[in-house]
Amino acid sequence: MHDSISLESLGVPTAVIVTTTFVHEAKVQRAALGMEALLPVAIDHPLSSLTDAQIQARAAQALEQVLKVWQGTHTDPPGPQ
């Protein structure tokens, strides 16, 4: 999160990728760091125990959202259900 905020302040578009379990924490962090406009990209949880094919699917899930972040059309993801 800190690196993304630093890069954004330099004009470098960034996308913070978190799993759905950590969306709330990402929103709390960005608020505490004064960067409400930084919208997290949320992918399904978990990540650490996946097969290569499942990780590729998560990457595809992230890519669609990352492109929207860079295009300015991404919306804030909901927190965990």
In short:
With 81 residues, the protein is mainly α. It is built from 3 helices and 2 strands.
The first-to-last residue Cα distance is 22 Å
Strand order in the sheet with the most strands: 1-2
Main β sheet profile: 2 strands, parallel
Helix content: 40-55%
What sort of overall outline do the alpha carbons produce when their principal axes are compared?
globular
Oligomer category: single chain
The sequence of SSEs as H and E is HEHEH
Radius of gyration, Cα only, in angstroms?
A: 13 Å
Instruction: Find the structural class using helix and strand composition.
Output: mainly alpha
Question: Kindly state the mean pLDDT as a whole number?
Answer: 92
- Please report which band the strand proportion falls in: under 5%, 5-15%, 15-25%, 25-35%, 35-45% or over 45%: 5-15%
